[in-house]
Amino acid sequence: MKNFNKLIIACDGESASGKSTAAKLISKKYKLLLINSGLLYRFGSKLLIKYKPRNPISFLNKKFKTISYKSIAKQSLHSEKISNHVAILAKNKKIRKIVNKFQMKIIKSNKKICVEGRDIASKILSKKPKYDLAFYFKCNLNVASHRRWLEMKKKVPLNEVKKSLKKRSKI
Q1: Exposure check for the chain: N or C terminus, fewer CB within 10 A?
Q2: Using CA atoms, how far apart are residues 18 and 49, in angstroms rounded to an integer?
Q3: Where in the chain are the domains?
Q4: Are residues 85 and 168 in contact, defined by beta-carbon separation less than 8 angstroms?
Q5: CATH architecture entry for 7-140
Q6: What digits encode the pLDDT tens for the residues 116-165?
């Protein structure tokens, strides 16, 4: 690959479609910083479940201003409880704005980056800064359910994982 001074790669697509796997491989191969937007929503969900704040918007706004992406990425955020909460959280436009602002801050301060998540190419990086290269991942619901079930180490029945993914695909 040609040497670039700036490179933004977007990996967009459906839940459990392989976005994260591909983004990790691309980031490693081309030495790019990897940002997983799903982890940001999962982190927000974990905080809201744990602390149950009266005003979730201002609470999350403060938390996202004082944390680094590295510390979010180190946390265990793949549980069925968090997955079900993320489906609700991601619908909230004010929370999406907080997460998008956090992502944009990271993207603008890094010249070589791979950003992975739903709507990353179609909405978040469709304007400045715009992605240089985008991939869209799509996956059959049965395959996606099985992938997520394995990721969760089979702690939840497969049919529950499938229901959760079906619900999230409608967001």
Answers
A1: N
A2: 27
A3: 7-140
A4: no
A5: 3-Layer(aba) Sandwich (3.40)
A6: 988 889 888 888 889 999 999 998 999 989 988 888 778 888 998 898 88
